[in-house]
Amino acid sequence: MNIKNPKTEILSIDRKEVLLDEFRKDISLEEYYEDCSQKEQIIIDNYFTYRDFLFSGLMPGMDENGDVIELDQNTIDQITHALYVINQVFYDNIELLIEKYFEDDVINVILDIYLASQYESVNTQCLANICDYLTFNGDSKIFCSDFFIDKLTGSLFSPVESLMNLSRATLCNLLQYEDFFARKEPEFWFNEYKEIDEDFMKNQNDPITNVHFLYSLIKRYPDDDYLLSHIQLCTSLFEEYFIPGGSVNENVPYFCVKIFWITLSTDFSSESEPQFSNEQNQFANIQHQISKEQYNSKLARILPLFTEDLLSNLVTFLGIQAYAPTVALILDKLFAYGVEIGPVFQENLHFILRSPVGEDNVKVTLLNLIRKCIISHAWYPTDDYIQDFLNIADTGKYNERKSAISVLCQLNIESIPENDFAYQIFLNMLLSDDTLMLDLIKLIRNLLYFHDNFKFYLLNHQDEMERLHSLILDPKMIDDVENREISESIDIIMKTATNIMNNTED
């Protein structure tokens, strides 16, 4: 929020006087201050100066007779500016100051100012402070009073746009906390959302509050019919705002993606269904079946909304760190529900597979999904994708390498490149990691059957051949293998390896 800097001469306090008491209490702060740059020292000075001003008791309120204290505009501006400066503690990235903010319990003073104030600029800046406090893992319990909730909801449609927007943003953030949500009946929050939704449909303003509010509610009540009926709105908004890096509010698709995942995340697979065996639980069995049928009915309404265009747009967001983990999970869940996601792999995955960095487990989730697609014949990779898998198996993080190898083990043997690069990757993984042993043994058996170049590779790399031979002959390895096909594969590899080591042909 951009607030004009008011006159602040009366707040000017000598730096040493401001910090002296703090230094006596906290030697680490004094040492830290001495090592700071001039800019950082000014930031620290400002924090303590304006903190002391806010703590001085000069705030809107009532006198001893219960009459409202009217403040002049200059004082209002000073309070607003003090709130603004204090809030910069979350943006200046000085960790010690953030610690002091929480130690000083500044947010309680800000809350008192908000509850006592009838001034729009003060209220607006208080809400900005509260929003940033919550974003920084603040505690929501202090905001659970009915007085606060009534005042906050009373400004959701304020004619002052900045106050209206921050009131809505604050409420959306607080609704994600269970203790705050529980202060009112769900119907109360649904009615508030309905009014905001109607305001959005009528005025076509920024939809961020609409989807943020919907996300906060659906996070608490994902099975509510009224909310599920709005998923279509989210798919439309996502397609409208999906362009990464565009001038539109990128938080819109962010919350749409979150809503997609929450909507899809309930699972009624047969493996997870509760078992009720006795007569006393017959009613529970019936209730569970009703719940399952209701969910499947909702799912039947939701899945058709995930069109090929929408899926292609979703995949685009795999390249953005804030979206990537959730999008990968959405694609995996849609595949589990039978949605055809193969087409999205045609042209959209190279950029994430080739990225040297990224969100943890995103590549792993995608590679596991690709493996499922290959097994189910939903999609088969082209040569350039296969090369991507080999590159990840060669230089990726440990879990990425394992997942890439697992994908390669599902390919037709004729799709495996006949070159030393691929052979070395497979042997290195087999000889260094036993978690993929069975899949790799079958793959190496097929390479010996169908790739003459692989035999020549082993002949020219005797050290790897000897390691492979020793591994196959390991009694523990043989004892662990019960699968007949795997046992036969070991016999074939052992025989071929022995022949190669003796420089004879199989």
Overview of the structural elements:
By secondary structure, the protein is mainly α. The chain has 3 domains: 1-177, Leucine-rich Repeat Variant (Alpha Horseshoe), CATH 1.25.10; 185-267 and 287-302; 306-411. Helices cover 66% and strands 0% of the residues. It has 28 helices and no strands. The N and C termini lie far apart (77 Å).
| Proportion of residues in β-strands | under 5%
Order of helices and strands: HHHHHHHHHHHHHHHHHHHHHHHHHHHH
Q: Which regions contain 5 or more consecutive residues with pLDDT less than 50?
A: 1-20, 268-280, 282-288
The overall strand count is 0
**Shape annotation:** elongated
Distance between the termini: 77 Å
CATH fold group of the largest domain: Leucine-rich Repeat Variant
Helix content: 55-70%
* Biggest pleated-sheet summary: none
CATH secondary-structure class of the largest domain: Mainly Alpha
- For the record, the CATH architecture of the largest domain stands as Alpha Horseshoe
Mean pLDDT: 78
Q: How many alpha or pi helices?
A: 28
Radius of gyration (Å): 31 Å
Class inferred from helices and paired strands: mainly alpha
| Number of domain units | 3
Quaternary status of these chains? single chain
Quick overview of this protein structure:
With 506 residues, this protein is mostly helical.
From the structure above, extract its key features.
mainly alpha; Leucine-rich Repeat Variant; 3 domains; 66% helix; disordered N terminus
Give the topology, please.
Blueprint: H1 15-25, H2 27-34, H3 38-55, H4 73-87, H5 95-103, H6 106-116, H7 120-135, H8 146-154, H9 161-175, H10 178-181, H11 186-203, H12 208-220, H13 225-228, H14 231-241, H15 251-264, H16 282-302, H17 308-316, H18 324-336, H19 350-353, H20 362-375, H21 383-395, H22 398-408, H23 420-432, H24 437-450, H25 452-460, H26 462-473, H27 475-480, H28 484-501
Helix pairs in contact: 1-2, 3-4, 4-7, 6-7, 7-9, 9-12, 11-12, 12-15, 14-15, 15-18, 18-20, 20-22, 21-22, 23-24, 24-28, 26-28
